Amino acid sequence: MIPRAPLWYELLWRLALPFALLRLWWRGLKEPGYRRHVGERFGRYPALPDARLAIWIHAVSVGETRAAEPLVAALRDRYPDHRLVLTHMTAAGRATGHALFGNRVTQAYFPYDTSFGASQFLDWCRPCCGLLMETELWPNMILRTAARGIPLFLVNARMSEKSAHGYGRFARMSKNMLQALAGVAAQTAADAERLTRLGATRVAVTGNVKFDVAVPDTTAERGRALRRLFGESRPVWVAGSTRDGEETLLLAALARAPLPADALLVIVPRHPQRFDAVAELLGQRGLQFVRRSAGQPVPAGISIVLGDTMGEMLAYYTAADVAFIGGSLLPLGGQNLIEPLAVGTPVLIGPSTFNFAETARDALARGAARQGADADAIVVEATALLRDPELRARMTVAGTELLAAHRGATRRTLDWIAAQLAATRAWQATAMCG
Predict the structure, then answer these.
(1) pLDDT in tens, 63-120
(2) Helix (H) or strand (E) holding 370
(3) What's the CATH number for 219-405?
(4) Cα–Cα distance, 203 to 208 (Å, whole number)
(5) Burial 190-209, CB ≥16 within 10 A → b, else e
(6) Using CA atoms, how far apart are residues 107 and 152, in angstroms rounded to an integer?
(7) What is the mean pLDDT of residues 36-59?
(8) Among 31, 43, 139, 346, which residue's Cβ finds the most Cβ atoms within 10 Å?
(9) Rounded mean pLDDT of 21-35?
């Protein structure tokens, strides 16, 4: 018998729902997407246009949605008669999904994790199989899905030691959730070990699907177009996916040790709701800058661009000579360093890399990335790289070799899922084609 989520968990969620509505309204002041499709958060969805079997993929936000891109492409190729339903928690994640997939998938918000929200979502979606990206563990949804006999997999799974400690505080609930999954496809052996320690069974190491990122054919031209706006002869350093507080650290370090006189810094905050806050920070420091959204060439006397557009991260990295990966200066674990490597751009990372620990170690060992202990060290490294095209070229080659060594995780993941499904009655019941 499949256990249910603890009563205290259900009660906490129900008590939190009014505050969740207020939070949606508040976040909607800066991101209008949070005020759209509100009913979906409570399990109320528009009717689907047809009765095709659905494969459900949950990607909570921007990073997970980008990571799901090769999986979505492979699933569409393998199961062309199935509907793909892609769910998110954040407005930015949903916007990213629309930019990547358009109408090729059905998008919706993941419901708040109440028992009724989970049940109503499953009634609407009717998935024959579900894939949760990375570390999305929601007790009601997982246990209700298992109770219906629907195979649900945690894929591209990662579990840092910090996260494992947090889940360990709720050991029984975590174990019930993980054992209710049809399987776990982990990124690394370390991730697999932590998940197994928490109670997961049927765990395999299939690699990181982010290495299978397909660079669109249009990316090179979009990067060249950006570079023309930035100034083709200027050295360009992109600080990508920066988090709150990191811009302050980097600007303070640059005040102490400026970049070469003609160099351009492009700051791209990770979250769009922070675009105006970073603009205000630059203004408070008396720094002249140009917004990318203005679409205008950057004057020679301007040394900073604010990357305030969505869906252009690969283009920013393509236009750069060097890329710093945000989320790594503060203890936030770092963002995705695979994207700049995929377009041949040398990478700089700060001290915090637990979200991509093995990838960061491999990139550093191969010479595809360099690391700084703090913002001052990052600025020193950036300056050195901007002045040394031969070193950048060697780092680009190392990055290409790193990607080649790790590609294939998407195929391995889907092959493993197909094998798990084939070994269960659910395969026959759902009529998924192999």
Answers:
(1) 899 889 999 999 999 999 999 999 999 998 999 999 889 999 999 999 999 999 999 9
(2) strand 369-371
(3) 3.40.50.2000
(4) 14
(5) bbbebbbebbbebbbbbbbb
(6) 18
(7) 93
(8) 346
(9) 92
In 11-96, beta strands by DSSP E: 54-58, 83-88
Tokens 């996260």 -> residue: 163
Its CATH class, for the domain covering 7-207+408-430, is: alpha beta
Q: Which residue has the tokens 């060992």?
A: 365
Catalytic sites, residue numbers: 64
Radius of gyration from C-alpha coordinates of the chain = 22
**Can you tell me the distance from the alpha carbon of 193 to that of 189, in angstroms, rounded to the nearest whole number?**
6
CA distance 32 to 27: 8
Torsional class of 232: left (φ above 0), alpha (ψ -120 to 50), beta (otherwise):
alpha
Q: How much is the pTM?
A: 0.85
348: nearest Cα among 315, 318, 319, 386? 386
User: Rounded CA gap, 109 and 123, in Å?
Assistant: 15
Pick from 426, 428, 432, 433: which is nearest to 145 by CA?
Answer: 426
Residues sharing a CB contact under 8 Å with residue 176, sequence separation 6 or more, in sequence order: 3, 139, 143, 199
